[in-house]
């Protein structure tokens, strides 16, 4: 398998299986002279950590980040940053019983058929655990973007099942285990998740990501449009089935006279575009939405086949999220940060003499 | 501007402005020994051509493709294929009046601010005309995929405004200028488009792309998942604001027990996933949906600013589609073909000894 | 065949066969706002042109460059530059007789065996004619580097056969068809080349390239060292068999105390390194040497095999250089310029806040 | 600093400073199903290890490799391989005295000026210690190439100072600490190195690499020629100043009738080309030569400047090789293996239906 890198100038390459010795990544392209320490990364890792709440998987991982290179006396040197998180709490026996089965909705079948071999322990490389290093690399990008331009990249849960969550303010998002911005929906969500746990079932979710203070000029027209690279990065997160920027699918029923964002002396009069015009950031707020499928690992029995092609019933025990979408929030923020960081460096390469980007 | 290439092993690099001398591309990575001639490419170019119907822009371009290299005696040699289409019908004067204005919903503003200069004639590089070479490169990929595995990649209009078009069969799609699969909606669409033309307004659309006979095994886990690369390629098409694979945003309100595709002795019992599991094609039909924003170039007056920052009224004359989504159908097919072709070559690089892919 | 691109941020992709319709390239990554016109490119094309002197191949090509995109009112817009040169004087019949033979020292055999097909007309893609687009892309890079930093990249012939040419000054180099810097060797070279033509044989050469005013800071440690990327670019030129930077192979017999360049208040006291330390330009003059093999296409008969594997005698008529090294001079300059240009943009991406590079 | 990756399909990305916590790399693109364990990698690491002989640096590193991912039950799964070697024996105090000086012949000056900061401990990222991970990644490539095609990649010292070493057989190379193939020169080399140690000086060397059983067809014409990619990979090794393939610089004084390798019914009659024609492997033995500069870290005093630009005398104590070229032998083998591995996968991507490569 290749394809374990993302970004051209801020290039993140990851490795690691769910139940291997460790997960790790190399970040190549970080500029020199940036303040960086473990705490900056650990903060975001803790937000996605299993067991962060009793609504997410109960796997107990401390997920302690180690910085192995690229930082000298708490400053980046410009050399590649090697990061590692050791797997401390894996119980292989949990999975031995499904060793020869293909879990429905999982990558077991495609991995086995493509590679002729798979590490069946906890999904190996296809486990959501793989996102640990995305969050670590994203945390460094977030730090740089914020230091240099005051860019803020934050996400929240905008829907779970049929429960819509209206955005109120960010402190609400940080105050509950659902990353829910709507205080009036917390009890409903609590009920829903508990009943799903009881039923051994799971539910989908919608995640919204907001990027503020993004300077005008990020993104390359044609194939590497900013929104195209964001779609790539976000769709690469496990369980994502749909991506929207700005008005997204609502545009299907909009008129040109409604949709196009008019301009005035104070700038744009609306933001249907979601902050990107012709693939380039317009200086407006960037708004993204992700559709997250329900967790496939559920206790409720289902039909599948084994390696011999025989039909069998399967019920997946072990520790799993009733709503994988919840923990996707910090991951979606991280992927957004990685893409913006990459395009910021690309901008600097090609338009160093134009100062729009310097606010 | 960089970012004018797509694909790693089937690599397409394009150039050309709407009103420049010519549009062109280089395709690097085409295998040797493939039958190829102009007619194969011209067929798809004609499907997207302006003036193909009286419902799309009236610009009259013959769009004659020229093959400059890489083909010897109608067989590919494995050397890069150089393609070119000359611009014959451009009227720069059409655009002189908006030379100093930023058309709302267009890239004028972001290009001007990012690059400090822009070719204002017809949007230059940001014009939908740029998609000509996407279609040409896609036609070659389609040909190869079909020859080698019988892969079929076809698209249609599934919605325009609030008019839903149900799929019936492909011959209907080919028989009308809307690429509409639903014979009962043709009259409604005709009425809608005519009234929009009268009003000088435009409308959004939803495009569906279906890829059949895609072998199991295409796509690389983690960042270069097949669905992630498809999302990138499709979101890079002008005017696309949303992407769905399989059930897309419907998953938000689905239970895990509903969504996960169970398996039996005859294979999968459903296809909610849209033909991709863990980023790898599962052998099922691949289903994609695109949200297309309404054309921003409309006669209806709107507010914008000029280069001096003064607010002015703008009305865009010239020849434009009331629904840019219609002509996006062959472009979406082409981008899907380019991504599948690229991953087919990537598969061959890494799993040459495993024969799943050989049906 | 892939591998038709070079550079990461100043990315040049070429196409075209010796006897195809045209040769062309796309340059992706040129910054906006740079003055550019045909004359700038044509000047270098004329220096490498066949028939430039009666000591190089007699093929008569005017090699007129056409700029198809990326330049608006003689200024680069930042969009990709499409370039093309039409093949006007090709005589396929010249080559029909060797259609089924593998010319010794040529790529005929490896192309045929690797791809199962080849365009045998004049070597197709493996012809030295492929270097036309290298020179065109290099001319643009040279222009930019000179405008921005006063960088000068110039080459000369330092040896042909056993005739050593001492550098005197650049005006001598420009005043003779050998790019020879040594006025005392012109007559000897003239004699040598004439006798080789009489014998139907050819000779090797050594080319030296000098880059002046290169700012400190270009090149990335480890794999993409400046000297490593230069070695790649120069070794990719047809007929090159060896590359040296600075003292090159002389270092084998040097002591550390001799080789290492000491520093003083006025900078470096010597330049054994050739202007690169640890893969990064040091601000000193960059010196490179190339070993060019003798032309393989000679009239003198030789032994080879045909497609049936039968041993046959071959004698290659047609129009060929007795010393292919001569015309390699402008090509070597161009490749050096492309690499420096690429690393200049890479520098700007990663160290935009450090001003060493601004002299 | 970017540029810490090499290879397109067999992609190696490294991190780590001389005196950091650890050195590591990620190998992306290894095919699944290959037997792999620590011992295979450790064997080559031991060959380059400091303290391997009393003629190389006395630093005592056990250099124990750890495989963190990508291998399951001693078989590669196709997922990325994470490797790590911890730094156990680093003595930072050794270097504190040169903290503010720029060691002549080193990257201290260029790093400091480019990045504005450097890890001065033992050269940080620019230390020869960086090559540990090259050797590890090369060992895996060697294993695969040998398993699949019986390819053998081996190197030796062909010259140190003015002492020429004639090749006799590989068992001699393995039997002495100089990787010298010539039993008659061992005593001379021993004397030379001892006297250099006494003088506190160092000497250059020439390394030869031989690749046998390389199938025809590896390498991509034009920019990614096999020899161009080899030149890049080998020139990227610290201290390399020159590269030759086949006859190298001898071609300058050769006639075409001498150089071109004629063919007969039994194949090529000679191998002046060094096994590559038109950038593609010809099926002959591949021969490469490297010029290695003398170690710059010597006890003998030299002149340099400090951070304030003042001229000072410097004498470098600590543990250093009198001839860095010796330990470059396994590194050069490794880089050759990485390039051949990469092109083997690229071949499989583009010419899967042609069986020349299967001997």
Name the helix and strand elements of chain A from N-terminus to C-terminus, one letter apiece.
EEEHEEEEHHHEEHHEHEHEEEEEEEH
Quickly name the level 1 CATH class of chain A: Alpha Beta
* Biggest sheet architecture of chain A: 5 strands, antiparallel
Roughly what percent helix of chain A? 25-40%
Oligomeric composition of the shown chains: homotetramer
Beta strand count of chain A: 18
CATH fold assignment of chain A? Chorismate synthase, AroC fold
Unreliable segments of 5+ consecutive residues of chain A: 355-359
Based on CA inertia axes, which overall geometry of chain A fits? Answer: globular
> In what order do the strands lie side by side in the largest sheet of chain A?
1-2-3-7-4
CATH superfamily of chain A: Chorismate synthase AroC
Mean pLDDT of chain A: 92
Classify the beta-strand content of chain A into a percent band.
Answer: 15-25%
Instruction: State the end-to-end distance of chain A.
Output: 42 Å
Count of the separate structural domains of chain A: 1
**What structural category do the secondary elements of chain A indicate?**
alpha+beta
Largest interface, with counts of residues having CB < 8 Å to the other chain, equals: A-B, 109 and 108 residues
- What CATH architecture of chain A would you give? 4-Layer Sandwich
Binding site for FMN (chains A, B, C, D): 125-127, 238-239, 278, 293-297, 319
Keywords (chains A, B, C, D): Amino-acid biosynthesis, Aromatic amino acid biosynthesis, FAD, Flavoprotein, FMN, Lyase, NADP
Function (chains A, B, C, D): This reaction introduces a second double bond into the aromatic ring system.
Organism (chains A, B, C, D): Candidatus Pantoea edessiphila
């Amino acid at each position: 398998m290749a394809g374990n890198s993302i970004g051209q100038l801020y290039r993140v390459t990851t490795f690691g299986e769910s139940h291997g010795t460790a997960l790790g990544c190399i970040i190549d392209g970080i500029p020199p002279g940036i303040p960086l320490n473990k705490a900056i990364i650990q903060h975001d890792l803790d937000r996605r950590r299993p067991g962060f709440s009793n609504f997410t998987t109960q796997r107990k991982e401390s997920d302690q980040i180690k910085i192995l290179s690229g930082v000298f006396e708490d400053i980046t040197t410009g050399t590649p940053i090697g990061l590692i998180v050791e797997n401390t709490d894996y119980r292989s026996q949990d999975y031995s019983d499904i060793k020869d089965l293909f879990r429905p909705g999982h990558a077991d079948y495609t991995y086995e058929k493509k590679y002729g071999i798979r590490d069946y322990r906890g999904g190996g490389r296809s486990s959501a655990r793989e996102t640990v290093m995305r969050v670590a690399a994203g945390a460094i990008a977030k730090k740089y973007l914020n230091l240099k331009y005051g860019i803020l990249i934050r996400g929240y849960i905008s829907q779970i099942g049929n429960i819509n969550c209206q955005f109120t303010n960010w402190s609400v998002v940080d105050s509950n285990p659902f990353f829910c911005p709507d205080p009036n929906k917390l009890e409903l969500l609590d009920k829903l998740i508990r009943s799903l746990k009881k039923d051994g079932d799971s539910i989908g979710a919608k995640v919204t990501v907001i990027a503020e203070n993004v300077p005008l000029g990020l993104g390359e027209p044609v194939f590497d449009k900013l929104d195209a690279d964001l779609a790539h990065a976000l769709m690469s997160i496990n369980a994502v089935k749909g991506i929207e920027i700005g008005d997204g699918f609502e545009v299907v029923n909009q008129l040109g006279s409604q949709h196009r964002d008019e301009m005035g002396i104070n700038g744009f009069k609306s933001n249907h575009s979601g902050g990107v015009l012709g693939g380039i950031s317009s200086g407006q707020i960037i708004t993204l939405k992700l559709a997250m499928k329900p967790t496939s690992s559920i206790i409720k029995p289902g039909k599948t086949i084994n390696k011999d092609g025989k039909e069998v019933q399967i019920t997946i025990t072990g520790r799993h999220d009733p709503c994988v979408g919840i923990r996707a929030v910090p991951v979606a923020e991280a992927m957004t940060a990685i893409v913006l960081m990459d395009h910021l460096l690309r901008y600097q390469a090609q338009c160093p003499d134009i100062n729009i980007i310097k606010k």
